[in-house]
Structure formats: structure tokens, C-alpha cells
Amino acid sequence: MVAMMTIKGFPSSLPEAEIKGLLETIGQVDMFRCSVDGDSLTCTCRYSTDDDTAKAKKGFHDLEMGEMTLKVDVEEAAPGTTDTSSAGNAGGDGSGDKAPAEGSSVEEKKPAASEEPPRRKKSRFAPPPTGAVDLQAGLGATPGAAGAGLLGIPGLGGGGLGLGGLPPASVHAAGAGGLGGLGLPGNWCAMGGLGGMPAAMTPQMKSQIEIFVGNIPVGTTQQGLVDFLNAAMLKVGLNLQPGNPVTSCRLNSKFAFCVMRNPEEAAKALNLNGIPYLGNVLKMQRPSSYTGPPDRAVTWQVLTGQAEMPAEGMMLMQNSATKLSCEVFVGNIPPETQAPTLQEYLGGALVQVGLCKPPNPILSIRMNARFAFLEMRTAEDATAALNLDGIPFGGAALSVGRPKKYEGPVTPHKTWFDVLAECSFGLVGGAGQGGATEAEPAPTSTVVRIGNVVTPEELTDDEAQKEVVEDMTEECSKYGAVAGIEIPHVGGAGAGVGFVFVKFHTLEDAQKAKKGFGSRTFDGKSVDATYFPEEQFAAKSFAS
Known about the structure:
This protein is of the alpha+beta class. It is built from 14 helices and 24 strands. The strands form eight sheets. It has a four-stranded antiparallel β-sheet. The longest helix is centred in the middle third of the chain and has 15 residues, at 222-236. The two termini are 38 Å apart. The relative contact order is 0.10.
């Protein structure tokens, strides 16, 4: 049995998915979990081989990460035994020394509580979009009531402070001060790491997960490029697992190096070669230090079924009119506004009130002193963004409209305060389509089926499932009173495995939860929530 490894000292701001990604640069990780340990994270994992365990211990031990230093402890397993401790039986009846009865199976013992960190003390749910719980509850707050969270309407809980009552200019884009998606300190590169990789990583390992991106347009930001490439890979299915495959990038004036989550997705990213971005055609290549086998990749045009065109003739869209239909002008921006902050703020507002579907519909921003141009995901998202006109930000009311060169159809839209007024009556979604809104469909059940919130490891361990239930009860209680939770076991009938089934006391609470979880993420994955028949829940029949 391969020994269990414990690594202490990861920064608490580092997402668990990124920690696992770092560990997997050494080798295959069969078991992984994280827990809060004071102001840091402790990771417990098991590699597939002892060789990988030794490499990881050598590479990560005493590795500095910000103000913290990683400490690695390997629980050595005696030959022919499991990697467990007999401490739980010390001083007991000696049953831990007995051989198993003939025909019985040997179960792996759990390390003593003092040796194994708790798995779910820190919820892996990302916080809901700011003020989202209040919006999903219908915003039936009395004017002046604290916490109504009406995105900056004075006297309605926001106090004129912007999104969910927070000072608009203080809304922080994760990782903006450091290296994009990792959320590491801004001085991470100076600490010996490159692009979110530990200093212990060899140059050969780095070249396996790095991609050179050439011909980037002027004004490109790190976060904007990362978000664009992630959106493109997810759209055409180049990702091999849930979540964003591009974790960070190092930006130069005309090129960048993007760090991928794993070597396999780095190879997949080469199929983005030729993708248009802000009027330029990006070049996606291996770095010059790459010494691996040749890649078999196609171009973006071949991948998406478009006709091949000379690079100099390609544009972001098929023509300038189409390009302009996806752009939105934003004026009256406060001085010193940062592009990632504005992007997260406006994108979050659009998703929160149901004007656009998650993730953030703003792919990139071109900033000037007092104005900016937003590149939206689609022309429909650009139309929906017009409803942001008048939204408060940093003490100013932003002016939102079409670019002057836009010659497309004039679509009716509302102001931001019109949108909020409708939200206060529970009318959310669809405001981007000609300004019309529609009510949320009536709930059909008090039971909600929630996906992408449990891992296979947790479904094989009764103690882990108990912790999942506690975590889910806490999260679901934010939307209403929970009547019951069911989590099908691995190895059972098979139906419903991988989902959590939650019964609420009322249809209204179930509706709030379905809508609320629909905008949440868990371990970087989008949470899926649908209604489930009450009769099947009562009968414990979880087949779809």
C-alpha cells in the first residue's frame, strides 16, 4: 500500500483544484482532500506509486509559498500492511492485532482523529454572487431594511454602495494582484515559481503544461486572455475535466505564456491556433523549451468547421458589423479603475439579476482613462448589457450603450434601476431580449436534485458522506428549511449516484434553492440543480 502524504502550509486563498493540479504534475493522485488548519490549508493525498510519493516529498518539502513554507509528512506503511495506524486500539482489547477471519475482507483502518485532518471544515462551495440569496428570495424587503442587498439602491440595504452593499471600487477580481486564476500573492514569481507552478518543478515539467500565445492585441489583460481561452476551450469541449483548463498566464507586449491545468489539456489547447481575438489572430504553439513528442492538432477554423482564411484576413468575427454587435461602450468610469475589477463587477451584476447566464459573459475589456469597451460573449449578451445603463460604480453612475460605429438594429432596453425595480417584484431573467422580462416558472416539487457537489471518494466513505450532509444542510438552509437530504451510495443500486437530493418544506424554498444553486460553483465546477419528483424521493427511488 502506498503511503499517505500530508502537506501543510498552503495559502488559504489557493483553490483546492489548483492544489490538486500542482500535485498531479508529479504523478497520478488516487486520493485527495483539503482541510482548514488555522490560516492555511492542509492537504492529505495518496499517489499511485511510492516513486511519485518520494518525488513529491522532495519537491514540495520546505517550498516557500508567500509567507508560508510547505511541510511534508509521509506516513510510512510497513511491508504487507495498510497505511493505517493502530493508535485507535492502543490500550484497548488488542483487536487491532488479530488476523481477519477466514473469508472476510480486510478493510483499511482510519488514522486516529489526531492524525487525519477533517475533510469538510471549509466548504468547497464558492460564495454565491453578491446579494444573490436576497435576489432569489424575491427581494421582498421593506425599504430601509438591512441586508436587502438591492445592488446599490439607497435605503434598500445597499446604502448606495453598489453590488450587494459593497463599495464598487473594492470588488476584487480573484488573482488580479497576482497571476490570474491561482489567486496567489502578487510576489509569487519572485518566490521561485513561474506562472503558478512551484519552484520545485523542473523546466521539462513546465514546458509540458505551458503554451505560447503570440500576436495578442494591444490592451490585452492577463485575466481577459485567460477568461477568453477558457471560454473557447469549454465551448468546443477541449477540456478533459470540469472547470477551467487555463490557470494563469504571463503577459508581454505581443505574446504570453499560458499555464494549463495538466499536460493533456495543454496539448488540446493547441487546437485554438488561429482563433480570432479582438481583431488579431492568435498563434498557439509549444514553447521553445518543449522537448516532448510532436502534437497532432488542427486549427480553430478546422475545429469549428469554418473555411480556412489567410491569417492577415481573419477578424474576431466574420465582419466588423458582427464584431461591433458584441461590443458595449461604458463611460463615466472613475479614475484608476482596474479592468479585472470592472469586468467582475459588471459581469456579476448581469448574472445576478438574470440578464445573462453564468459564467461571466464579459470576455475582455479595453480600458481608457474614463471609458471602456466590453467584448461580450454573444450579441445577445451585448444587448442584455445595455440594461446596465446608470449602474452605480465607485461613486459614479456608469453610462452604458452601443459603440458609435455600431450600425445594427436599435434594441429597446431599460436602465439599471428599472431592472432592479422589476427584481424587487421577483421578475428576473430575459431582460436582455428587447427589454422584456418573464417570471420564474412555478416550482413543480419540494425536492431539488443537485449535481457536481460530491466526489467519488466521498461516496465510498460513510464518515465523508456525513460531512457532505452537514455541508449541504448548511448551504441549503440559506434558501429555506430543509426537511431531508439523501445521497445515494456507490455500490448500491447505482441510480442517482453523484447527486444530492434535498427536500424542502415548501415549494417556495425549493424554487429559491434551485435558482440559487444554478449560479453557484463547487470546486470550480458549475452546480446543476433541477426539480425531482417527491414520490420518488419518498420511495428512495433516485432514477432519473
